[in-house]
Amino acid sequence: MTNNPASEDYFRPFKEAIQAADIETEPLLLYFDTQRQRMIDLIHATDPETFWQTLPEILGIDAKLMLLIELIGFEDFPTQEILRIVEEDYRFYFKELCGYDLSMETKPSMLFKLI
After folding, report:
1. Rounded distance, CA 47 to CA 21, Å?
2. Domain segments of the chain: what residues?
3. pTM
4. Mind listing the pLDDT tens digit for each residue in 42-83?
5. Is residue 81 classed as helix, strand or coil in its secondary structure?
6. pLDDT tens digits for 21-47?
7. Quick one: which of 69, 112, 115, 106 has its CA closest to 92?
8. Helices 5-19 and 51-71 meet at what angle, rounded to 10?
């Protein structure tokens, strides 16, 4: 399945950031490719009937990728620790990005209902 230029524009900065990292990148690139393919599959499978089930997962993948490239900047984290943190913390990424404390109640936005 081919990708359109807009999706490549979205994914390119993540891949470039991983490739430029000063840590072991092979597991990170594998993780990226897996997340990228999952997002592409979800987008292609989304229709009016599945939209409400797939959008939270798509947003979750976006949060994982954003958190991944933030964490690779911390050279004292080994690759496996970065991947562990991403998988454990991605659900809270947008909450913290929006200025919420983890204990605070959020607005009813899709950004806070990640799968």
Report:
1. 37
2. 21-108
3. 0.89
4. 999 999 999 999 999 999 999 999 999 999 988 788 999 999
5. helix
6. 988 899 999 999 999 999 999 999 999
7. 112
8. 30
